[in-house]
Write a structure and sequence with these properties.
Length: 104
């Protein structure tokens, strides 16, 4: 049996009537909703690992470049020191030879 317009409007009005939500509605809703991706600890751990992996190679390369530069500078200083030592040893040798020639 079809509904009359008045009956339809009354049923529709009853169906759309405001009712207060149950007291635990918000808690139930939160339990059913998925946790946002950015609030998951595993996602933060993965993000930190990716960031670390992205930053590590440039840091290592810079460290190695700096160490190479220090080694090159130390090598240059050693060469200068050896040249100075060679000159001083030659001068000392010549003085000793001169001194021994005069005493003989």
């Amino acid at each position: 049996m079809p509904l009359s317009n008045d009956d339809f409007e009354q049923e529709l009005s009853a169906a759309l009537r405001r009712e207060p939500a149950p007291p635990d509605f918000a808690a139930k809703l939160k339990r059913r909703l998925p946790v946002p991706v950015w609030r998951r600890p595993a996602v933060w751990a993965i993000a930190a690992a990716v960031l670390f992996a992205a930053l590590l190679p440039p840091v290592v390369l810079e460290y190695r470049r700096e160490r190479r530069a220090q080694a090159l500078e130390a090598s240059r200083e050693l060469i200068v020191a050896l040249r100075i030592t060679n000159v001083k040893l030659r001068q000392t040798k010549e003085r000793i030879q001169r001194a021994t020639r005069h005493t003989l």
